[in-house]
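Following up on my earlier thread - several people asked me to post the actual chain instead of describing it. Fair enough. Here it is, all 548 residues.
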Amino acid sequence: MKTKLIILWFFLLVEFISFAQSTPKSYYWVQLKDKKGTPYQISKPEVFLSQRAINRRVRQHIAIDETDLPVSTVYLDSLKKRGLEIFHTSKWLNGVTVRIADTAQIRKIAALPFVASVQYTRPANVLKSARNKFNEDDLQADIGPATYGASISQLTQLNGQYLHGQGFRGKGIQIAVLDAGFWHVSQIAAFDSLRITKRILGTRDFVDPKSDVFQQHSHGMSVLSCMGGNVPGLLIGTAPDASYYLFRSEDVTTEYLIEEDNWVAAAELADSLGVDVINSSLGYYSFDDTKMSHPYSDINGKTTRVTQGANMAFRKGILVFCSAGNEGSKAWKKIIAPSDGENVIAVAAVDKNGVRAAFSSYGPAFGGAIKPNVAAVGWSTYLVTSSGVLGYSSGTSFSSPVLAGMGACLLQANPYANVKQLKMAIEQSAHQYSKPDSLLGFGIPDFGKADKYLKVSSVQNQVLKNSWLVLPNPFSDYLLIQNTTPNSAQPCLVSIYNLQGIMVWQSTFGSSEQIVLQNLDNLPQGVLFLTIRSGEKEERFKLVKTKR
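Reply from S.P.:
Thanks for posting it. Predicted structure:
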């Protein structure tokens, strides 16, 4: 009898565990009110940002602020205690994506004092969507004899050979690719050079953390080949020497609002790692649950969460490229989020002769902002097709990475340019900059001209002649001081003076490329002057001290 009871309890336990594991869970976005209780401090960014991310901010004079602080662990613990599973967090938007089986709890969650609002983003049980998300077609064609093969026109249309010819092919630049999967990138010969030189820096699946991105959809693989593909004589991408992070944020089987939150989570990781460029051949406006869909009035450059995330990535010093969309021949016709972002470079599609593709989405953004921004080859782009062989495919999904790769080369050629300067140079170099329209925006860029614009930039020249960068400015309780000339660091004396010339702070530092001045709360508010003496050279900076 005892044995039978044990067996009975065993099967009941197995059944219970099986039921618990298979209980479907719905997804919600929980918007938090603040970040009270966070253990992190703005003055100690190395705890939550990589050194590369900090260096990118220093180089571009971008202050580290509260949006960089991770979500409050106190609030996360409180949500977990109430049975919610934390799926994503967003420090930029100060929110959490959660999963829960008992949806009756949601009203109680919404009533918590630290919660601003709750939004339903994905149902527990979903059916495969009938829509074709990417809408690209594979086409076959002969291969040209040149070094770049049939991909040569994608480069020369942008005058990309000007940068490639000088050796600027993306070396040292890190690009995050946000997409639907990277099928067989770990095996396909076109990516051999990335694998051999270990320039696939990492992967992450934000849809299903347990999955292998190399076994998912082929779309991201084709996108990557436009930048990082390297088959001499056949295909050379626009940034063949760059390094890549491959992030899956898109679930092609369904279309729900949660994918925007996946996107933001991926972009935040890219920022924390120190990535320089994001390419996103994804876009959103219509969902399987129509109540989640965006009206055109939301495509205004700042409303949707995915657009807010893209804008924030740019403000953190990342150059962001997005497909304008393939809606030009459909009922919607317009651009889609996040390509509407005011800081995003939205890319339309043309053929190798510069003729606009009929499927390429129209602008402007709601409110009249110029969109798309620019254009590149997205109609018969030469790449690794969805079947894993070289051929042609079409879609703004491919014009975006073609351009993003060139953006990486431009950054390599101008390492002290900030993202605003880079975006402006790309737009100003385009063929219809003086008469932009709603089809191609400013038109097709010329990266030779863009490079020359940056080389004569007075802002960049000012940065180049200084040995040190000091930020943030204004500041409250800390300062970061970065040596801009690698391998030249010497011991230095740092002093701070008030307007009357009275020294209010001073310290000596050993040889270091970066110095962090902390606990500056007690310095007088207003205009101060900081001097850095290193060897025989002294540099002076005007700063503004504010209250914390």
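DSSP finds 14 helices and 23 strands in the chain. That should answer part of your original question.
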